[in-house]
Amino acid sequence: MKKVLSVVLALAMLLSLASVAMADYSGDLKIWVAEATVEFTQKMVDQFKAAHPEYANMNVIIEPVGEGDAASNIITDVEAGADIFGFAQDQLSRLVAAGALLDVEPENAEIVKAENDAGSVAAVTLGDTMYAYPMTSDNGYFLYYDKSIVTDPSTLEQVLADCDAAGKKFYMEINSGWYQTAFFFGAGCELTFDSDDSGALVAMNAGYASDAGVKALKSMIKVAQSPAFVNGSSVSNATNLCAIVDGTWDATAAKEAFGDNYAASKLPTVDGYQMGGFGGFKMLGVKPQTDDDKLAACDALAAYLTSEEVQLARYNAVGWGPSNLNAQKNEAVQADEALSALASQLAFCEPQGQYPGEYWGLATSLGDDVIAKKYDNADDAALLEVLKNFEATCEGYLAK
């Protein structure tokens, strides 16, 4: 049955692409992608044009603009921006508010939902509308460790004990608003922000000032008290390393550091709860067009560049982890320990949305206070007060 469904979906994708390919377009089309994927994207565009003669004379211009910069650049001047552009999930609402994204055709949206993992589908969707095509499911953090020392990576208590017993170090950047959510989200807290049509943050949904928040903060304090703990998240900057909370971008460095003892897994539990955190995804968006033929070309090309075939080819070329479910089942992807660990961890993560710029500094201050042992002797009531102040400060960042 699964094979039949796969064939049906494949045919649906071909029919979808064929439907938008009926129009002939031979003008310019600009794409923004990360610098590391420019050459790869050019190769895929050439393949697309070879398979679609009606677009053989289309002039595709590929420019290196990273996913982290795409939103700021295109919002500044939507008309001058790329027709198709890669961006990270935390930029989605800003782009929608700026009118820089065209919603995905309903037929293609159904295919995207069926073929990609749930996290990436949620990341490209606002309300009931899908605004982009998922491209990767590979931005998040998990545990790298030395399997000759760590006897059980499933609990942080055991990881810390094993590292300490071996005279080695456990690294985690607890004064980072990104990594810090591993504790708070894992314990069951919420901290998200809602934006209005202009992209301004107008509401906060928070649960840090709660029993769950106190539990999370106490876990952070306990971890920072361990003799094995070092605040950090870069394998290359670590010394005497035993285990580290890090991401796929450091996989090569981790393999070099641990050698034959290299291993990776989802984050462990701490104080009885599974650590969570942020999940990140890359996606391709299509800018609204006044030329229907050009729009058809953009839609067809964006669908192709995020298809199973291209996602897998992108993994083989530059190591980006696919969001496509079939590509994730590929033998090489399955054998990638870092991606497998991240895939397991993403089940416990929340897609990173928009946060006030000041939030990151506030979270750093909270982590710095923990590292400085400011709260080591604080009782639950005092810790709750700290978190109430944290929430109140966050709420003060909202647009008035």
Characterization of this structure:
It is a single chain. The protein has 400 residues and is α/β, with parallel strands linked by helices. It has two domains: 205 residues, Periplasmic binding protein-like II (D-Maltodextrin-Binding Protein, domain 2, 3-Layer(aba) Sandwich), CATH 3.40.190.10; 175 residues, Periplasmic binding protein-like II (D-Maltodextrin-Binding Protein, domain 2, 3-Layer(aba) Sandwich), CATH 3.40.190.10. It is built from 17 helices and 17 strands. The strands form five sheets. Strands 1, 2, 3, 6, 16 and 17 form a six-stranded mixed beta sheet that branches. β4 and β5 form a beta hairpin. The protein is globular and about 70 Å long. 46% of the residues are buried. The N terminus is likely disordered.
Layout of helices and strands, plus pairs?
Layout: H1 2-20, E1 28-33, H2 38-51, E2 59-64, H3 67-76, E3 84-88, H4 92-97, H5 106-115, H6 118-123, E4 125-126, E5 129-130, E6 133-140, E7 142-146, H7 156-165, E8 169-171, H8 181-187, E9 191-195, E10 201-206, H9 211-225, E11 229-230, E12 241-246, H10 251-258, E13 262-265, E14 269-270, E15 273-274, E16 278-286, H11 292-305, H12 308-318, H13 325-328, H14 331-334, H15 337-346, E17 350-351, H16 357-371, H17 380-395
Parallel strand pairs: 1-2, 1-3, 8-11, 8-12, 16-17
Antiparallel strand pairs: 3-16, 4-5, 6-16, 7-12, 7-13, 9-10, 14-15
